[in-house]
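Database export, one record per block. Field names are fixed; values are copied verbatim from the stored entry.
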Amino acid sequence: MTKRNCIESCYRSSGRNRGSRTSNRIAASRGRAPDSDRSQSADAQSCIGAGEYDGRIEWRQADALALPFEDRSFDVVACQFGVMFFPGKVQGYQEARRVLKPGGHFFFNVWDRISENDFAVVVTQALAALFPHDPPRFLVRIPHGYHDVERIREELNSAGFTKISVEAVDNQSKAASPRDPAIAYCQGTPLRSEIETRDASLLEEATKRAADALADRFGNGAVEGRTRAFVVSAIS
């Protein structure tokens, strides 16, 4: 097999600190895979079982809008559910293209609109009922806010990419109980910051409301909900 150099982002944003902002940092990977932040590195390595790859993966934390790599260094750049968080989409795409060799491939995925993703929309509606005058809109605004396929194509074109392909992928999200996705959304994403900014004492109540709404919709046992995402590929 031909050796390839690849940046694969392991995007992480934390909602655990009140008022925290979503970061546009990535843990990248390089054929060996580019992360100097030990917590991000540990998260990413645990996700992919990096111990199996010995020294072939190099971990490095990097800013997606200012990648610390030389021009034309990589065959592939991949970003999993990360570009939605970039403050400047075109700038991020330009950086991906800059570090790609001519003819290199850029792959990423984004969520479709929130109405096509069951757990996310149910949680958002439950929190809107708890905070009717100022509903938390993080899930609508960021993770599910970058779904306009024509806009994505235009911005990739602006960054210099060609042969752009976008494929919709429908799937099912599964959890052992309604409380599991409620905790994941309300306490494990930046949605937590929005809840705590409104009233930190209501975090557990918000989680319970989300879990109850999911149970009403999907039942009290193991739950499944629709998901839809777009997988995008382009050539530098």
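Remark 1: The beta strands are 6-9, 25-30, 58-63, 74-80, 100-111, 162-175, 223-235.
Remark 2: Residues 6-235 form a domain with the Rossmann fold fold (CATH 3.40.50.150).
End of record.
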